[in-house]
Write a structure and sequence with these properties.
Keywords: Hydrolase, Manganese, Metal-binding. One of its GO terms (molecular function) is N-carbamoyl-L-amino-acid hydrolase activity. Residues 220-317 form the Peptidase M20 dimerisation domain. Its EC number is 3.5.1.87. This protein has 419 residues and is an alpha/beta fold. It folds into two domains: 7-219 and 334-413, Aminopeptidase; 224-332, Alpha-Beta Plaits, CATH 3.30.70. The protein is built from twelve helices and 14 strands. The strands form two sheets. Strands 1, 2, 3, 4, 5, 6, 12, 13 and 14 form a nine-stranded mixed beta sheet that branches. Helix 1 (7-20) packs across helix 12 (398-414). The termini are far apart. The structure holds (2S)-amino(hydroxy)ethanoic acid and manganese (II) ion (2 copies). (2S)-amino(hydroxy)ethanoic acid binds at residues 129-130, 137, 363-364.
């Protein structure tokens, strides 16, 4: 039987496949926070971490944390790595998960070779990053970073279940008590840094024919929930000039988001969710709700666009006799990667004769929350299928996964703490 030329890479892909079998939906991958699929994925990650020779714990928000202990004694500091295992609705199987599965495979290989590191390596399977169920992105990394917002405990999901109730029912340590969530924060003084391996989720590496890239900064994002209210009335008898049509007003607002965000290259704006609650085909919509996700590599560019869009929404509403409520969900600001950490990835790439290509991340990542308490760096892995992501078509190759794993081993074994 021929030996697989990319054993680590193939094992990572096989495990991503196995993990994707746990889903909240038929025929695709949705893994929302604390659903049965999410709990099964959490348990399998814990099992794989244990099999790789790690001590595993699950914290108060459901993070799965594996420690590959140092050979330099218990008081050694920690280099942290990891990513999220929750997904968007009908998402891809590598977003987040590659950044957990690859380090686990690497630790398994180190452990099998009896190789220890002069620091503790901790792999975190972050339990919630996407914000699908409670509209709260970076929930799990905010707990680890000591930035959990207690107000989020009252957030409800589509079934009216609060975050507090979901945590209490989960059996997680602390049962969702605020004190337990606050106690789960990591002490920044114990950290050497945080590094995250992630698929690029875009076409840049693919178009440059590069397998890997080093991230320079992670774009900040602001998310909003918007509710527009008008007046229901008969679709057949209400003259067009006498309507207060919430959906027609919303349509104009969505085009405003598109045109304003098209005005600046580094700016993007997306309305990913749009709903006429309790709508009927023969009734003029009384209400319309929609999400907004606005991002830019520069905080001031993003904030200027947000100001224009929010003002524009209110002007459209006033002209159409509508009301507009714009609720901003906690913004996440730009996170720069640390040059001293980036350069250690670049040195490994160059040593292997690879380009040390640097690029910004338009997608948000757990690293941007961890950057609040420690220096961070990210290694991007090429995405196939035109770079598509947040889509079942998301794909990587075993060859690129193998290369990324080998680069990660080199990075870990040559890692030099700052200063
Ligand atoms: O939305 C993002 O950028 C990330 O996938 N949560
Ligand atoms: Mn994502
Ligand atoms: Mn992600």
């Amino acid at each position: 039987m021929t030996q697989n030329p990319h054993p680590l890479g193939q094992s990572i892909i096989d495990r991503a496949e196995a993990l994707a079998r746990f889903s909240d939906m038929e025929g695709g991958l949705t893994c929302a926070f604390l659903t049965p699929a999410h709990r099964s994925a959490q348990a399998l990650l814990a099992q794989w971490m244990e099999e790789a020779g790690m001590q595993v714990r699950i914290d108060a928000i459901g993070n799965v944390i594996g420690r590959y202990a140092a050979d330099a004694g218990a008081d050694a500091r920690v280099l942290m790595t990891g990513s999220h295992f929750d997904t968007v609705r009908n998402g891809g199987r590598y977003d987040g998960r590659l950044g957990i599965l690859l380090p686990i495979a690497v630790v398994g290989a180190l452990n099998a070779s009896g190789i220890r590191l002069p620091y503790h390596l901790e792999i975190v399977g972050f339990a919630e990053e996407e914000g699908l169920r409670f509209k709260t992105s970076f929930l799990a990394s905010s707990v680890l970073a000591g930035r959990f917002d207690a107000a989020l405990l009252a957030r409800t999901d589509a079934d009216g279940v609060t975050l507090a109730e979901a945590l209490a029912a989960s059996g997680l340590p602390g049962h969702g008590e605020l004190a337990a969530l606050q106690a789960a924060a990591v002490d920044p003084a114990t950290l050497l840094g945080f590094v995250e391996v992630h698929i690029e989720q875009g076409p840049v590496l693919l178009n440059k024919d590069l397998p890997l890239g080093v991230v320079t900064q992670i774009a900040g994002s602001s998310r909003f929930q918007v509710r527009i209210e008008g007046q229901a009335s008969h679709a057949g008898t209400t003259p067009m000039g006498m309507r207060r049509d919430a959906a027609a007003g919303t349509a104009e607002m969505i085009l405003l988001v598109e045109s304003r965000c098209s005005a600046v290259p580094a700016l993007v704006g997306t309305v990913g969710q749009l709903l006429v609650p309790d709508g009927s085909s023969n009734v003029i919509p009384a209400a319309c709700t929609f999400s907004m996700d606005i991002r830019a590599g520069e905080d001031d560019i993003r904030e200027a666009a947000i100001a224009d869009i929010v003002a524009g929404i209110q002007q459209i509403a006033a002209r159409r006799g509508l009301s507009a409520q714009v609720d901003r969900i906690k913004p996440v600001f730009n996170a720069p990667c640390a040059r001293w950490l980036m350069d250690q990835f670049s040195a490994v790439l160059r040593k292997r004769g690879l380009a040390a290509f640097e690029l910004p991340s338009g997608a948000g990542h757990d690293a941007m929350m961890m950057q609040r308490i420690t220096d961070v760096a990210m290694l991007f892995v090429r995405c196939g299928n035109g770079g598509i992501s947040h889509n079942p078509l998301e794909t990587i190759t075993a060859e690129d996964a193998q290369l990324a794993a080998e680069v990660f081993v080199d990075f870990l074994r040559h890692f030099q703490p700052e200063g």
